[in-house]
Structure formats: structure tokens, C-alpha cells
Amino acid sequence: MKTHKIAVIPGDGIGPEVINEGVKVLNKIASLDHTFQFEFTSFPWGCEYYARYGKMMDDDGIERLKEFEAIYLGAVGFPGVPDHISLWDLLLKIRKSFDQYVNIRPITLLKGAPCPLVNFNSEDINMLFIRENTEGEYAGAGDWLYRGKENEVVLQNSVFSRKGTERIIRYAFEVALKQGKTLTSISKGNALNYSMVFWDQLFEEVGKEYPSVKTYSYLVDAAAMLMIKDPKRFEVVVTSNLFGDILTDLGAAIAGGLGLAAGANINPERVYPSMFEPIHGSAPDIAGKQLSNPLAAIWSASQLLDHLGYEQYGKVILTAIEQLLIEKNVLTPDLGGSSSTSEVGDCIVELIASNMNVLQTQKN
């Protein structure tokens, strides 16, 4: 039996609650397959750890995480710890240290999920955002000059390297080619006359190697409008770190809300572990109350299975989530229900077991 070693960082707020349900789902999948199992190792890093020790993770944390195939992260952030510290000293530190330069966020309207847009159905909203994840606007380059003085100046520099820009664009072209879909690049070349003109030129340059992939290119403001007015025009999307961060939250809003928003941070070469996380944040106001929606964390677990080569089980999880949304019997308050976090997780486990039994029967 193959053992997959997974590092678990439950994190802050509702993180431990939703991650617990994701682990429950992963263990259920493994128990029904019998050819592999998971070995989870939990790390207590996060804002509570920071409040106690003055740091978001152990000094040797990155070295310790190298031992694992993947990382499963709950949430980062809590009142009392500045957001730039919680983000840069844990989440972004892991992304950058492990060269997780591909951020994958599905914007898919599952059947039964709420959508604020009128006259659109699930077939109209099915985007895959591929976001550059290690440089760009979040490179952390800049300076703070003459702090506190009358002539105070702050510099925040974006960094777009040829290597970093080309590899994310090429990754997106490969995905679009494999899936037989269009590829849309989102930038802002009219205003950002260095970084985004460079991005646009590389998109065109790499695109010549993929003549069968139909491409589009939009300015970010126009893309935001079109995601609302005509979302079906977007299939595979590639964009920069900042634009991807903003637009995927817009995408989450039109595809069921943040409780259904999953994200993967991928090191495609598998030199380092990749990381999987819901993107809804730590929601400290409802932490510990069993009110949080675990579906985003469970969706992230399906991405983890995809990464490990068990795409068929990733689909089983998504089918179970969709069934739950259609039936509407077991939902958390954010989706109009009255069920607890753990009750939703238990229901997903039951649906998975039922669906996998059907699959086994069909095979036999």
C-alpha cells in the first residue's frame, strides 16, 4: 500500500474546523480504494503561534515541510496580528520557498450553487484561472523612505522576469491545449507601460508555439466587467499575481461564494511540495461555532487528489459536493441551511461512499 505524506497546517479561525472535514474526506477515499493511504502530520503554525512565540512558523519550518508530498492549509489571519505579517511570514513564505509559481483556482458554478447573476446557468460559468504566484506585484520589492517625515515616500515595485512570466504563460497554454479550450490573457498594458506590455509581448510570443489554441487578451478592467456580463467567454485564463488575486474573488462571488472557493499552489516540476487551500480566509467571527462552510476545503482536497494522480477521485468529490448543493438538505448557514460544519462533512463522506460503490458495481 502506498503512503502519501501530507503536512497539515490548520492555521487560524475556522481553518481547523474546515480542514478537519477535508482530512475526513481524504481518509474516506483512501479507505475505499485500499491501494493507498494518507499519513497526516499537523503543524500548529499561524497567528496563535505568533502571539506565543513571535513568529508565524518554526525557524526550520521550510526544511521540515520539504519532507512531504503536499501541504494542506486551512486559513491564515487573526485580529491582533497585522495582515502583512500573517501573510508574508507563512503563506507567501511557503509559496516562494517552494517555487509554487502556479496558482490554480476553478471558477465553476456547480449545479445547485447560488449565483447572483440572472439568466446564467452552470454551463455558462466554468473558468479555470491560472495565476502567476511568486513574483509580479507581490514580489515584495520596494522601500520606505523618510518614514514619518514630511517627505515620506513609499516604493512598491512589481517584478516581472522573463523566466517567471514565460513559464506561467506556457503552463496555461499547455492546459488549454490539453483541455481543448480557449486561453485568455488578462493584463493592463495601456497603463502599465513596462510590466504589462512585457506580459502581452510574451503571451503573443509563446502563443506562436500553440497555433491550435484560440486566444483572447483583455485589459483587467474590461475583463472584470465581462466576467459579470458574459462569463461564458472565459475558459482558461492566465494573469498576474495581483490581477488573479482580485478577479478570482470576483469569480467566487458569481460561482457560489467564498465557501465554495478552492485554490492550489503548484510546483509543476515536483521538486518541492505543492499546497492546497480554501481561499475564504479565517473568519474569526464564527470560529469555533461549527458555522463555517467546509466545501471549499473539501474542494481543495479534490485538487490535492488530482495532483497525486487520483483524478477519478477528485471528480467523485466534486460530484458529491454538487449532489449536496442540489438536494439542499445539509447546508451551512451561508448557503441558506442550518447544518453544522461537521454535518456537511459527514454528508459528503456518505455521498462519496455511495458514489464509489456505484462505480465499483459498474466496473464489475
Automatic annotation (TrEMBL):
Domain Isopropylmalate dehydrogenase-like: from-to ranges: 5-348
Keyword Acetylation: no
Catalytic class of the enzyme: oxidoreductase
EC number from the UniProt entry: 1.1.1.83
InterPro entries attached to this UniProt entry: ICDH/IPMDH (IPR050501), IsoCit/isopropylmalate_DH_CS (IPR019818), IsoPropMal-DH-like_dom (IPR024084), TTC_DH (IPR011829)
Pfam family, one: Iso_dh
Protein keywords: Manganese, Metal-binding, NAD, Oxidoreductase
Reaction catalysed by this enzyme: (R)-malate + NAD(+) = pyruvate + CO2 + NADH
Cofactor requirement: Mg(2+); Mn(2+)
Family in the record: Belongs to the isocitrate and isopropylmalate dehydrogenases family.
NCBIfam families: PRK03437.1, TTC
Protein name per Swiss-Prot or TrEMBL: D-malate dehydrogenase (decarboxylating)
Biological source species: Gottfriedia luciferensis
Taxonomic lineage of the native organism: Bacteria, Bacillati, Bacillota, Bacilli, Bacillales
